[in-house]
Amino acid sequence: MKTVLVFKTSVTRKKQIRRLRPLLNNLIDPNDYWNFDLEDCDNILRVETQQLGADIISTTLKTQGFFCEELP
C-alpha cells in the first residue's frame, strides 16, 4: 500500500526541479511517483511511495540548499 507524503518546499522554478530530478528518482522505487506543485503557495512536493520515509526526502532537499518540511 502506497503512502502519500506531502512537503512544503522552497523550490520555485522548473530549473530547480530538473536539478533535483535525478536525486529524487534515485530515492524512489520504479513504481513510486513524485511531483511538485509550483502553483501552490507552499510549492508542494508530493511523493507516493511504499517504503521511503519523509526524513530521507527532506534531508535530500536540504542538502541541496532547499527548505523542505513535511506537512501533516
Pick out its properties.
72 residues, alpha+beta, Alpha-Beta Plaits, 4-stranded antiparallel β-sheet, globular
Share of residues in helices? 25-40%
- Counted by DSSP, the helix tally is 2
Could you list the spans in which at least 5 consecutive residues all have pLDDT below 50? none
* Integer average pLDDT: 96
Strand content: 25-35%
Structural class: alpha+beta
The ordered string of helix (H) and strand (E) elements is EHEEHE
Rg of Cα set: 11 Å
Q: CATH topology, what is it called?
A: Alpha-Beta Plaits
- How far apart are the first and last residues' alpha carbons, in Å? 19 Å
The CATH class name reads Alpha Beta
Q: Based on DSSP secondary structure assignment, what is the total number of beta strands?
A: 4
Give the total of domains.
1
The CATH architecture can be given as 2-Layer Sandwich
Numbering strands along the chain, what is their spatial order in the largest sheet? Answer: 2-3-1-4
Q: What's the story with the biggest beta sheet?
A: 4 strands, antiparallel
**Global morphology:** globular
Structural commentary:
This protein has about 70 residues and is an alpha+beta fold. The protein has one domain (about 5-70): Alpha-Beta Plaits (2-Layer Sandwich). It has 2 helices and 4 strands. The protein has helices at about 15-25, 55-65, and strands at about 5-10, 35, 45-50, 70. It has a 4-stranded antiparallel sheet, with helices on one face. α1 crosses α2. The two termini are about 20 Å apart.
